[in-house]
Amino acid sequence: MLYLNHNLDLLHSSNHGWNFPPISPHFNSPLLCMKPTIANYLGLADTHLGCKEHERQALLKIKQDLIDDHSLLSSWSSDQDCCTWSRVGCSNQTGHVTKLDLSVSSCFSPRLLREFIASLSNLGHVGLGSANFGRNIPFPFQLGNLSNLQYLDLSGNNFNKPENLEWLPQLSSLEYLDMSTVNLSKVNNWLHVVNKLPYLTSLHLYSCNLPNIFSIPLVNSSTSLDVLGLSNNDLTSSSSVLEWLFNSNTSVVDLDLRFNEFQGSIPDDFTRINSLAHLYLDSNEFEGEIPKAFGGMCNLKTLSLSWNYLNGQLDFIQNLTECANHSLEVLRLDGNQIMGSLPDDLTTFLSLGELSLFRNHLNGTIPVSLGKLSNLEFLYLGDNPLKGVISEAHFSNLTQLKYLDLSNTKLVFNFSSDWSPPFQLDTIMMKSCQLGPRFPKWLQTQKNFHRLDISNSSISDTLSNSNWIFSSQVLLMNLSHNQLSGHVPNLLRDFSLFPILDLSSNKLEGEIPRFLFKAVDLDLSKKYVFKASPIPMYSH
């Protein structure tokens, strides 16, 4: 179940205000009709043979018993070849149904699950992610009878806690397994079981309450893993998971161990995984310096180590120039205790698309070489005691820049009045930077932003020409703690969403414009002198 809050992405997940940079989401939304990985498989079969009649009838029975509120199965009709239906795929050699995606279905009964397993025995691809089985239903061990299964997605379902997964090794051809959020806390040998799947390439066990493993399998059958996701399972350093990983899975490309309880220094053994391209170790309890050996990981594209207890200097970045600098696209070190200054020469990281060093202890100035990173889209350097002057040279070639956070630094912006930046920003977070005394001309060229925080930025100006500020697509706007004066113009503005607006602690006066009352959170407190006027009612 997905709970939506239209302000969730505004407030991020920090208790320190609006400065925490957005985290790139790793999970697919269950509101989507089809996950991209599933959609690639559907409707692609050669249907010259036509589907088998008994399988067509079995599918029609499924449709009859399902509550399909979103008409996901509208193409399933009795007068058409079932191989042409959406969410169904057939073998072009036999005509048997081999692929079935019932993810994001409504009111999927356990009985129905058992029936289709029995009726569609040739299935090789089964998608049941977020299938809404209800709560506390028996785990479908019968899936072990689908001996041709290569792809199985059971994520996002509330099965009774299974006590074992002994049915899994029967699926000897399985390549993709996703059981994320299925409670596996009673399966003490989960690692030994998945280790028996010789062709498994992708394993996703996010938020499964996995118990720690204290012995590794003696025989390793599954050495083909490319993708391994074990985040949010409270795994600890005393577990044997890392030992198993380093000894038996050196072909992993994408490794996600976020939101666990690994402690101590980051092991150099990660460098033994020569193929590793994406490494996520965020939100653990790692400490000490970042291993210098990481510089030799020549395939590394993503290094994400945010929200640990890492310290030391940024010297390790220089070590990345050994070879990883040519491939590195994402570097995230937010929320650590890293000190020192940024390297003077950043031009060795021309592939970098995200540089996220938010909330550390970095000092010194931002090098002008930053402006050469033409692929940079995300730049988060806020909450560091950085200082110095920022000029247009720092942004000269940042044509892809979309997210900028320099909040709570001591940076002074000094741009020529006629400079027009080569980018259009989505997020502009520059709280407590020195931007004033007037609204910068370059800032007024930004037309597509959803979030703007320039509070406490030494601006002494009016809002007389503020069409650019009160953009219809704005989600968050904070202009507080400046010296803004005069009236807020009564614009004809209809916000597409209900934004958070903070104009407090300024010297504004006059009647509050009606369009401001469409905000879900409006703060005009402290020094706003306003005339009484009827407050219109808007339905949210």
UniProtKB/TrEMBL annotation:
Membrane-crossing residue ranges in chain numbering:
none
Q: What is its main location?
A: membrane
**GO CC, alphabetical:** membrane
Source domain of life: Eukaryota
Q: Where in the cell is it found?
A: Membrane
Record keywords: Glycoprotein, Leucine-rich repeat, Membrane, Receptor, Repeat, Signal, Transmembrane, Transmembrane helix
Does the record carry Acetylation as a key word?
A: no
Matching InterPro entries: Leu-rich_rpt, LRR_dom_sf, LRR_N_plant-typ, RLP23-like
**Matching SMART domains:** LRR_SD22
| The keyword Glycoprotein appears for this protein | yes
Q: Which Pfam families match?
A: LRR_1, LRRNT_2
- What's the protein called, per UniProt? Receptor-like protein eix2
Annotated source species: Quercus suber
